[in-house]
Amino acid sequence: MATRIVFSQPGGPDVLHAVTFTPADPQAHEVQVANKAIGINYIDTYVRSGLYPPPSLPSGLGSEAAGVVIKVGSAVSHIKEGDRVVYAQAPLGAYSDVHNVAADKVVILPNAISFEQGAATFLKGLTVFYLLRKTYEIKPNEQFLFHAAAGGVGLIACQWAKALGAKLIGTVGSAAKAEKALAAGAWRTINYQEENIVERVLALTNGAKVPVVYDSVGKDTWEASLSCLQRRGLMVSFGNASGPVTGVNLGILNQKGSLYVTRPSLSGYITTRAELEEASCELFSLIASGVIKPEIPENQKFALADAANAHRLLESRATRGSSLLLP
Ligand code: NDP
User: Fold this and answer.
1) Structural domains for the chain
2) Ligand 1: does its nearest atom lie under 6 Å from the Cβ of 150?
């Protein structure tokens, strides 16, 4: 028997419950992973709340974990029992002791990276990889705006931007978060609870504004983000922490300077095995060399059965860096 988190109807954190179950054997192209550390991602709250409805209910939750392979499907050749692995694109249900995952979505976790470090950085690091290297290729010395810079994705973006020699201007919700983002490599921060984002970006860039904005906050920052962009700049809207952006009048892109907008997702960029290997190689080498240091505060490590409390904390904006469930 194993334990997993399920929910039977969309709603707040209270809908999450731990249940016991007997894991099915992996299918031919799957491996079965005994999870050692499970990544908590903001997207999990969208699935739980009904913003991104699961395929069916009751449903499991979570798509990321690191652990040890305990069973291998008959058609799998590149992974064997006992391998240390990590995955970020599993079917819903990674909030579990044990999860079956398509083998081509699983990569070997280098020995230099712990299970906790792997689960804290894989989905978020792959995201930063595609955002800064593919959606728009950030260049040395380039100034750009990245919202929620002290969050899980945000702190990795700060470190990656610094490694690229770029000047990340990060928005944050408190002075303590500003310190964290600056220590991780942000060039400057804007406390958007107290400061006007557009005025500060204009001042920091001597009126030039930025060529690209990465916005995962959504509804609350949409319009300010557009106002921070240079003529023909790129708005990368990749999340909805404050609620989704809806009812956009395309004319606003004209008014703000012939702007471009994209709404990317991890699965749209890391789709093939070759794309997963390229991205994970680059991420792992930055972690192994200490350029990216996973940030997992002790109070953000939760027992698996405590998933509801983990969601409460994440949605309260009180977290920084990554949060984990530990089976
Ligand atoms: P975070 O750790 O960044 O947590 C979300 C943060 O958003 C909060 O800490 C908070 O930081 C900020 N925020 C701003 N407004 C609100 C609000 N009204 N309610 C709650 N939080 C708010 O989460 P993750 O690192 O897991 O994810 C970051 C974002 O990236 C999410 O929006 C997620 O959906 C998105 N994402 C998108 C992917 C994609 O491929 N499209 C892949 C992975 C993540 P502060 O207090 O500083 O404002």
Assistant:
1) 2-121+271-326 (3.90.180.10), 140-264 (3.40.50.720)
2) yes
Show contacts of 22-26: CB within 8 Å, 24+ apart. 23/98, 23/100, 24/100, 25/71, 26/71, 26/72, 26/73, 26/100
**Looking at ligand 1, which atom is closest to the CA of residue 192?**
48
Q: In the block, which residue shows the tokens 């012939």?
A: 258
**Beta pairing class for 98-102 and 30-40:** antiparallel
C-alpha to C-alpha distance for 238 and 217, rounded to whole angstroms: 8
Distance CA 294, CA 287 (A): 8
Residue whose CA is closest, atom 48 of ligand 1?
A: 173
Q: What backbone torsions phi and psi does residue 261 show, to the nearest 5 degrees? A: -130, 140
- Summarize pLDDT for 259-283 with one digit per residue, the tens: 999 999 999 999 999 999 999 999 9
Overall pTM > 0.70: yes
CB atoms within 10 A of CB 27: 15
CA distance 183 to 227: 27
pLDDT score for 155: 98
pLDDT in tens, 117-140: 999 999 999 999 999 999 999 999
Atom of ligand 1 nearest to the CA of 171: 47
pLDDT digits (tens, 9 = 90+) for 241-260: 999 999 999 999 999 999 99
For residue 101, give both structure tokens: 């995952």
Which residue matches tokens 């804290």?
120
Average pLDDT score over residue span 71-79: 97
Q: CA-to-CA distance for 181 and 148, rounded, in angstroms?
A: 9
